[in-house]
Amino acid sequence: MQRQIYTEEHEAFRATVRTFLDKEVLPHYEQWEKDGIVSREAWLAAGRQGLLGLAVPEEYGGGGTEDFRYSAVIAEEFTRAGVSGLALGLHNDIIGPYLTGLATEEQKSRWLPGYCSGEIITAIAMTEPGAGSDLQGIRTTAEDRGDHWVLNGSKTFISNGILADLVIVVARTTPEGGAKGLSLLVVERGTEGFERGRNLDKIGQKSQDTAELFFNDVRVPKENLLGELDGGFLHLMTNLAQERMGIAVAAISGAEHLLEITTRYVKEREAFGRPLAKLQHVRFEIAEMATECAVTRAFLDRCITEHTAGTLSAVDASMAKWWATELQKRVADRCLQLHGGYGYMNEFPVAKAFTDGRIQTIYGGTTEIMKEIIGRSLLA
Q: For the chain, which ranges sit under pLDDT 50?
């Protein structure tokens, strides 16, 4: 079925994204994978191309549009290209709303121009060694010292953790407040007491720097409080739907691309004197995956439309995230199987997609958390 959600402007933007990938990303990606990190020049190039800060007002150097479809185009094209390291989705769709929606005018003037140019790379630090999806378990503390906060604690699995110049840290500002005692504090590169641990060794997404962060008596100015004091939990819940949509869009795009690759492969690869595509089992496998992808795509496109209009519910976003990421996982496994031994070789795209995509059902809220959110809404 022909997709109905994109206009000529979106498709022109898609062409821009593909040109950027061909020129600024793909020639360097193999080296980034070896290095475990992308170059800062790639971020600056993305800024020059207008791919950063899509929803940021033009006065700060952004794109001035809140149309999520442009972000969806980036997610689709980056996923199809198999380049997970340059985390524009994290920067634009996850961290961006905190800066545009919660920052004061002074904060916007200070941070947003660099955010849009690629000079300021961002991260958000929620997860801790003992607290993942359960935000109430956060132990990082920020003590009020009058004109500043004193921040102590550690975070782990932080995407962009090595490169980040600006980190939004979720910290406990009211010890007895539970989930209602959390606040968002912005810590900037070079702040005394802010240290980065190792660049974590992952099974996939090798070029996406993921780090441990440590805060030892870090003095955070009061003007670096983002949003309301003790309002961090509500701020986080407000922005999670878009994060989950970005993951879901990448997931369905990844599944569709794997299906395309595998369909071509089984037509060309021969076994028992004929192409694999002539075997009934293989045809059934392709038929099942194609149908699942088509049905999921229809739901995701509806979710994209709803989110662009500002009417997508947190429950529908959770459904999209759960279903699309689990589909991607199943499709990756089945496509690798259809490739046989070649599917296990890193030189084949299906192998990299298998390991890169495995995190999708975990970050942004695990599948189990998504089901809990959906179940609560139906059974409350």
A: none
